[in-house]
């Protein structure tokens, strides 16, 4: 995609559901190009189909993984040539306390990394 059309590019993590998905829809309606990122490639593909492939691109990405983040940014630049705004929206919760002992420490690590870098 050429940057000559001057469409601004919005990168949104956690875009497969909820606030991220709604933000992507509103951004496209406002004339932005969007890159939607999340772990669920199926949901992202469906969203891009809804938004239009010329206006949106999906990137499956675990934001807690630096290499995947770098790939997400590079794919965005390769496709649209720029990034004008980022909505770091990815996040999740385990739904119970660490103190209760229901989750392994690595599960909490993943949650914290996603919620901080999301």
From TrEMBL:
<dbReference type="InterPro" id="IPR002347">
    <property type="entry name" value="SDR_fam"/>
</dbReference>
<dbReference type="Pfam" id="PF00106">
    <property type="entry name" value="adh_short"/>
</dbReference>
<protein>
    <submittedName>
        <fullName>SDR family NAD(P)-dependent oxidoreductase</fullName>
    </submittedName>
</protein>
<keyword id="KW-0560">Oxidoreductase</keyword>
<dbReference type="InterPro" id="IPR036291">
    <property type="entry name" value="NAD(P)-bd_dom_sf"/>
</dbReference>
<dbReference type="GO" id="GO:0016491">
    <property type="term" value="F:oxidoreductase activity"/>
</dbReference>
<comment type="similarity">
    <text>Belongs to the short-chain dehydrogenases/reductases (SDR) family.</text>
</comment>
<dbReference type="GO" id="GO:0016020">
    <property type="term" value="C:membrane"/>
</dbReference>
